[in-house]
Amino acid sequence: MKPQAFIFDVEGTLIDCVALILRCWQQTLAGHGFAFPVEELHRYSGMDGKLMLATLLPNLSSSARMSLLGEQGERYRNEYIGHARALPGVDLLFDWLSRNGHQSVLATTSQPDELRHYLKLLRITDSVSATVCGDEVSHEKPAPDLIDVALAKLPAPYGEVIVVGDTPYDAEAAQKAGAIAFGVLTGGFSTQELREAGCKEVARDPADLLRVLAGQQATP
Predict the structure, then answer these.
(1) CA atoms of 195 and 168, how far apart (whole Å)
(2) Tens-digit pLDDT profile for the chain (220 aa)?
(3) How many domains does the chain have?
(4) Residue 85 pairs with which residues in a beta bridge?
(5) Which of 31, 1, 6, 49 has the alpha carbon at shortest distance from 161?
(6) Which residues pair with 131 in a beta bridge?
(7) Is the distance from CB of 217 to CB of 99 less than 8 angstroms?
(8) What 3-state class would DSSP assign to 105?
(9) Rounded to the nearest 5 degrees, what angle is found at the Cα of 157, between the Cα atoms of 152 and 162?
(10) Local structure of residue 157 (DSSP, 8 states)
């Protein structure tokens, strides 16, 4: 059997930053008179920001929504990203994947400068075959565009492709791209929510995902 290929989301899946992003969105929206509790914003965590704002603020013009997106991104980079941390076991997981011949691609809605910051925290650059950032696609999750670009960047040959994410939108994008969805609980969604979205396996965090994958490989 050919080694598997893995496509990983980054924010919330490998990096502990979901709460930071939600607080940043809440602050940005509140600055324009739009009050949303974090719990409501979390429902859209991982969704394309343009689609999220169109859902939350349908009467706002497209240009105003784009302005909010830009403002939130700048605030996150200036005030929040420095508090982000790598989730437990990421380096061990990617080392195991590399040693066992599996290929890994990062597919993230992050901008390139944000991904560079995250990679310094993750220390997995030598184990990653390629990266895809949000500026490379027109539509983000749940659209499959990020996954499709990641698939095109995967070195051949490879067997089945597994997409690992922390939200139902990751699972939806994976399935639209013809890949298998795995979930982690680090994004704040429940096992049931991730399973219902199509995740074949759900792990607590990257460290637990390593246990799941190593166990599958050991099973005849």
Answers:
(1) 8
(2) 567 899 999 999 999 999 999 999 999 999 999 999 999 999 999 999 999 999 999 999 999 999 999 999 999 999 999 999 999 999 999 999 999 999 999 999 999 999 999 999 999 999 999 999 999 999 999 999 999 999 999 987 788 999 999 999 999 999 999 999 999 999 999 999 999 999 999 999 999 999 999 987 655 5
(3) 2
(4) 16
(5) 6
(6) 106
(7) no
(8) strand
(9) 65
(10) P
Instruction: Give the burial class of 33: count Cβ atoms within 10 A of its Cβ; 0-12 exposed, 13-18 middle, 19 or more buried.
Output: exposed
What is the domain extent for residue 98? Answer: 5-17+85-218
Which H helix or E strand runs over 6?
strand 5-8
Same-domain check for residues 70 and 37: yes
Q: Are 54 and 97 in the same domain?
A: no
Question: Which of 39, 59, 83 marks a domain boundary?
Answer: 83
Judge whether 147 and 107 are in contact, CB under 8 Å.
yes
